[in-house]
C-alpha cells in the first residue's frame, strides 16, 4: 500500500453505539443514547461521525444493540451519501448470531471481534475505536498520526481535567514522554500530570490500534474464559501493564476557535444533557455549531422557516437568546434562553424559559414551562405549569438533582388519567 496516502485513508472508525444510557432516564426508553437529539437538529452520534468524515475517514462501522431502530433510521436518512465505488463505506452492525450461539455483544471488545471479517474487508492499517455518545469536535488524523509514529500498541485519547474532578473517570498516569504507566478506574486520589500537580488525564474512551495487532489481540481475548471482553476492563489494562500504551491529549487535536477552550461533554445525565443544550444559547457558545470548516453533518429534514406570530401585550410570539429550528411556529409565546427542535408549535400566552424542546412538540395555551426537557411528540396541555413548584412537579414528572424536569407523553397521560 502506498505510504504517500493520508493516514486517514488507511484507517477506519469503529463506533460503539449499543449502550442504552440509562442515566438519561425516560429519554432512552425508546431510543439508544447515541440517537438522542442534540443542538436543535442533530443526534449525539453525529459528532463522532462528523469528526470521522471531516478528518478524512470514509470507512466507518457502527455497532448497535439496545433499541436501535431510531438510530438505524437516522443513519439511513442522514448518512446515506457514502459510495462504495469511491472506496467509502458505512456499515451498521446490529448484534446478531454471527459467532457460535451468542446473539448479543458481550462487551465493547466483543463488538469488534464479532465483526472481524467485515473489518478485514476494509483493508485498513489502523482502526480508531469511538464512543457514539459524546459531544465534541476532534481531528482524528492528529491522533492516528501520533500513534503511527510512536510505536505504541495503543494510543488512548485523554482529557485534561482538574484533579479534584478526575475521580469520576478512568485516569491515566503518564511519564514525560506520554507513555502510560498506569490506568486507574475512578481513583480516590487521581495521579497528576507530569507538568501540573492540579491536573489529571482522564480517558475519553477513544483508542487507536494498528489493525493487525488488534485483530490478534481480539482473537486471544475471545478465547479467554476469564475475560469480560471489554476494552477498558480487559484489553487496555493488559497493554498498559506491558508499557506499550501512549496517551494522546485532546488539547492537541480539539477543533475550536482560536483562544476557545477544549470542549467535550458526556451528556449522560438529564442535568448534563439539559445544560449542554442550553449552553448553545449563549452569546458565544464554547461549542461552535456554526463552523463551516468543521460542520456537524446530520439528517436535514425538509421544513419551512420558523414563524413568529401575534404582536400584542401578553401575546407576542418572540424568542430571546434562543435557538428555534425549521418548521417551528411560535404563536403568541414568550421564549427565553431555550432551544426548540424541528416542528415545535407553541400557542398563545405560553412561556418557555430555559426549555429544551425536542421535535414535534405542541405547547398549548397558558402553559408555563421553566428548566425543562420535553421529549419528542409531547402535547403539553393547556395551563400546565412546571418549574415553579418542585414538589408538585416531582409528583408526575422526573425532576433531576439540579431541578431540571423531564416531561414525556407517558407521564402526562398518567397525570391526566388521575384527574
Protein architecture, described:
InterPro entries: ADP-Glc_PPase (IPR011831), ADP_Glu_pyroP_CS (IPR005836), GlgC_bac (IPR023049), GlmU/GlgC-like_hexapep (IPR056818), NTP_transferase_dom (IPR005835), Nucleotide-diphossugar_trans (IPR029044), Trimer_LpxA-like_sf (IPR011004). Homotetramer. It catalyses: alpha-D-glucose 1-phosphate + ATP + H(+) = ADP-alpha-D-glucose + diphosphate. It is an enzyme of class 2 (transferase). This is Glucose-1-phosphate adenylyltransferase. It is a single chain. The protein has about 425 residues and is α/β, with parallel strands linked by helices. Helix content is about 25%, strand content about 30%. The protein has 10 helices and 29 strands. The protein has helices at about 45-55, 70-80, 110-115, 115-120, 140-150, 210-220, 230-240, 270-280, 390-395, 410-419, and strands at about 10-15, 35-40, 40-45, 60-65, 90-95, 125-130, 135, 155-160, 170-175, 180-185, 200-210, 245-250, 265, 305-310, 310, 315, 320, 325, 330, 335, 340, 345, 350-355, 360-365, 370-375, 380, 385, 400, 405. Strands 1, 4, 5, 6, 8, 9, 10, 11 and 12 form a 9-stranded mixed beta sheet that branches. Strands 17, 18, 20, 21, 23, 25, 27, 28 and 29 form a 9-stranded mixed beta sheet that branches. Strands 14-19-22-24-26 form a 5-stranded parallel beta sheet, with no helix packed on it. A hairpin with a 2-residue loop joins strand 15 and strand 16. The protein is globular. It starts with 10 loop residues before the first strand and ends with a helix.
